[in-house]
Amino acid sequence: MKTRSTKVTLGLYTFGIVWGFVIVAPVFWLALLSLKTPLDAFAVPPKLFFEPTLDAYFAVFGDSKFLAAIANSFIISVGSVVLSLLIAIPAAYGLRNMRGPLRYNSMLAILLIRMVPGMVYLLPFFVLYKYLNLLDTHIGLIIVHLIFNVPLIIWMLAPIWASIPKDLSEASRIDGATPLQILLLVDLPLVKGGILASSILAFIFSWNEFLFALILTRRTVVTLPVAIVNFLAYEGTEWGKISAASMFIIVPAMVFGFLVRRYMIAGLSSGAIKG
Fold first, then answer.
1. 215: domain range?
2. CATH number where 253 lies
3. Diameter over CA atoms, the chain
4. Amino acid 142: pLDDT
5. How many domains does the chain have?
6. What tens digit of pLDDT does each residue of 253-263 get?
7. Residue 236's beta-bridge partner residues?
8. Which residues contact 130 (CB under 8 A, 6 or more apart)?
């Protein structure tokens, strides 16, 4: 077996370190900005050493509108994930039993729905919601998020489900189990890692989504990304509040991203056959 040379290994590690720095540096700079006073924030040259302050965080979390935005984002994200799972799990289970062109075309159609830019859906949903009085409502945003979260969960669960031996389902069917019992008691425990991983990714999407929240909401159901835009006032940009609020959005996404890495591995190996 041909081993990798030292130069190639060193080059890969160097590339990984540089790329990691490129990703982490903006987040690090944003964290520093959230701890600076307005005077330190606009100092030239920029200050790396300064006396930190939590004034921006106190100002942000003392704002009742921002706290309401946190609640709205949490309700919409959790609601979208729950409804997406209720739709995507049976769909992925059904795709497992399909064969040939029907399965391929179904998976392709689901992927195309996810790949279409959100702007394409925006105008039809805006007009429809205007007539249905769904503008500026939680359920309105939750329904829109289903367009992107359901295909994502299906595409993550389909290959995991396909790796589960069908002998288990056949044995359960012979023992008298109904299709619903097989789904709930046999298959779901085997794909729980994939379900958790896809749920976290769907939650992150809903948590960070900006375009639909900006256009389809007004004042009642403002989400966190839209609330940050409100700090861009005519009197001046409140960079301290913006950076502090942005950190509150980033940290949960980073934590959930780390969890995705762990449970993604568990999900992909959940259907493996042990010898």
1. 55-268
2. 1.10.3720.10
3. 75
4. 95
5. 2
6. 777 777 666 66
7. 233
8. none
